[in-house]
Amino acid sequence: MAALDPAENDFGLRASDSDRELVISELSDQFVEGRLSHDTFAHRVDIALRARVRGELHSLVADLPRPRSIGAAIRAGCRRVVDAADRWTRKPPTPLMLPPGPQRRFTIGREPACDMMLADATVSRWHASLENAGSGWLLHDLGSTNGTRVNGWRVTQPTPVRPGDFVSFGAAIYVIKDRAA
Q1: Which residue of 105, 124, 168, 172 pairs with 120 in a disulfide if CB–CB is 3.0 to 4.6 A?
Q2: CA 47/CA 38 separation, integer angstroms
Q3: Residue 7: HSE in the Cβ half-sphere, 13 Å Cα cutoff
Q4: pLDDT in tens, 146-172
């Protein structure tokens, strides 16, 4: 937890996405090691995603044991990278076809009323939308809990997407495809 070191005394600073990801990663490791129940883990992740300042994030991991060494933290990080690469090599991302026709806006989420329903627990009911801006498609996050990303970057404003881009809604990963392709 180097980014949230208590010695830095900057808990009043605004929390960044990387600070949140670091805390969620630590919570995940502690959950896997059996130090957190599923309910506690889910509750703390929810708080981490809503945290405004670094002090809120620090309080989520302050009662948990620290990794034994920097080497252990590096090994845990490498394990996550290897696991992610393994998922990608075993199963490539599902294609997400750009919608055809005259409709200009398409909603994406778990809600059956969405234009594109995604059955994944990490996807919000009304997660994101695609809007045809004439010159191309724009992806909007609709205030989702677990975020929307394009090529690994979190969507915070309308973001252009093109065929070949990787998009994720929570943990659900897709590759944009054009219907003509």
Answers
A1: 172
A2: 14
A3: 2
A4: 889 998 888 999 999 999 898 999 888
